[in-house]
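Risk mitigation, structural track. In case the binding assays with manganese (II) ion fail to produce interpretable data, a predicted complex structure has been prepared as a fallback.
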Amino acid sequence: MKSNYINLNTHSGINGASGNNNGKMSLGKSIKMYLTIFIATTCIYMVLYQYHISREPFAAGESVKPPLYIITPTYRRPEQLAELTRLGYTLKHVVNLLWLVIEDANKTNPLVAHTLDRIGVPYEYMVAPMPEKYKQTKRAKPRGVSNRNKGLEYLRLHATEGVLYFADDDNTYDISIFEQMRYVSKVAMWPVGLVTKTGVSSPIIQEGKLVGFYDGWIGGRKYPVDMAGFAVSVKFLKERPKAQMPFKPGYEEDGFLRSLAPLANTEIELLADECRDVLTWHTQTKKNAPAQALNRTRYKNTNLEYIDKLLVRP
Ligand code: UGA
Ligand code: MN
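Fallback model:
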């Protein structure tokens, strides 16, 4: 190889490589030398880098943080992708989290899957339709209940540790609440803003103890709290194989928390600075009318044909 190279460049004939002392020859040698030095240096750097990585103080706390399981009910409507996008990018700030997105539907929607893929938070997308008898009713519906129970079922099968939290797709969450709930050993509670006429739903704390609940609607509930205001340890849930959420509008949280008995009020951990801070809000999005049908003749071969496919119509 070497001699060919030199021969080609020197036009010095068949035996040109045989050690003749000319300038071209030393050029070949020096190229080889530089190459050798370059490769050797690269190798040394790689070895040193590997060593550096292996010696890096192992961020023990970082990598073994208990997992968070965020159960999010969702359903088909014009706002759906916007809500999931907003919540998803909030969750993206949180490590070791699995987002269980469960749609009240008979089949998954590729538009939702596409949105979740784009956000990039680890997720499972499942469906759990509301039973027909509740769908038909003229009265209040148990919204998101089959979804949340499906999430609980998933955790009983696939999770062993960590904490679960029901995060409706339309609420607002400060990410610090996620780090606080991660270490809960049984059940934790904290205030939720924008709930009823009191403007907030919160445990009442006196001298460090839970002494009651503040909420514009008590309704005979043992735990008058909002869905966004509590988290439960996975181990604790699994020790209560029957715990689930009832299909009882207004009493979903209370029914679920009651099903976690035995649970003494003294065992409830109080987060958000012992419930002096508000880190979650029960925000509600204005309902949008379904998008009107696109005039396909008029807008043929325009971008609107693409956008139209991204609209979620009920
Ligand atoms: C709150 C609670 O979060 C609900 O669990 C409870 O059912 C409701 O109050 C109530 O007491 O009636 P709210 O904000 O009023 O919820 O209701 P939505 O935000 O419309 O629904 C709660 C969750 O269920 C959302 O994540 C939503 O996407 C989902 N949902 C709603 C469904 O899966 N299916 C529906 O038909 C409606
Ligand atoms: Mn809501």
